[in-house]
Specification:
The protein is of the alpha/beta class. 30% of the residues lie in helices and 25% in strands. It has six helices and ten strands; from the N terminus they run βββαββαβαααβαβββ. Helix 3 crosses helix 4 and helix 3 packs parallel to helix 5. The model has no long low-confidence stretch (mean pLDDT 93).
């Protein structure tokens, strides 16, 4: 039986306020699976993504990514170090002291070992796909806007990420940005080796099978 790309094993997680988000959760994410997390904010969708990305410490249990447990104390995981994780948080998670172009280009240089000029050319190509070509030299705005989220999406695409963890964009997207984002995600979904877990609105529904969080458990349909 093929090894899953990611597994949550007996995971329990509580919010900073002490509310139980997940209790003894077991979940396997197969390679090439595509899921669309449905539900309103506050249901635990963002917490699930952060667990999968190695950004949240479970109270109990463990998270295994590509056959190796994520250790938050070590901050060292081959899958993540290689640039195979495409993390797209709601605020984009950008470095505010860098331009949008450098936010996309630098991960290519450090994780994919791409030369400076090649990385900048590839970064610009993806920013143009995201509708941000003219804003490439700008720095991220605070509070985060749609450009920050679209830049993070471009970053995931430029790296050729094998696992996309995509949270809903802060403030939503205008129709043009939504169309561009859908095209990028749709292209990723066509690759049988790429795995996606998406949180967002109805415009994402055709990109993955439905996944719901109910009372700290995951209720799923069949994978697409």
């Amino acid at each position: 039986m093929p090894r899953p790309l990611l597994a949550l094993e007996g995971v329990s997680l509580a919010s900073p306020e002490g509310r139980v988000v997940f209790q003894d959760l077991d979940w396997k994410l197969d390679r090439g699976a595509r899921w669309h997390l449905q539900g309103n904010q506050g249901t635990g969708a963002t917490a699930l993504l952060r667990l999968c990305a190695g950004l949240a410490r479970p109270r109990e249990g463990r998270v295994v990514l590509d056959g190796r447990e994520i250790d938050l104390d070590a901050l060292d995981h081959p899958f993540i170090n290689a640039g195979d994780l495409g993390w797209v948080p709601t605020d984009g998670g950008l470095a505010v002291n860098l331009t949008l172009l450098d936010n996309v280009a630098l991960p290519l240089r450090f994780s994919r070992k791409v030369g400076r000029e090649e990385a900048r050319e590839e970064a610009l190509r993806w920013l143009e796909r995201a509708g941000l070509g003219r804003s490439a030299a700008s720095r991220p705005r605070l509070p985060a806007d749609r450009a920050c989220w679209m830049t993070a999406l471009a970053r995931a695409g430029a790296k050729g990420s094998r696992l996309w963890l995509v949270d809903r964009p802060a403030g939503g997207l205008d129709p043009e940005s939504r169309k561009a984002a859908h095209a990028i995600l749709e292209e990723a979904a066509r690759d049988p080796e790429t795995t996606l877990v998406l949180v967002g609105g109805d415009w994402m529904e055709d990109l993955g099978a439905g996944l719901r969080i109910e009372d700290g458990r995951l209720a799923t349909g069949s994978a697409p």
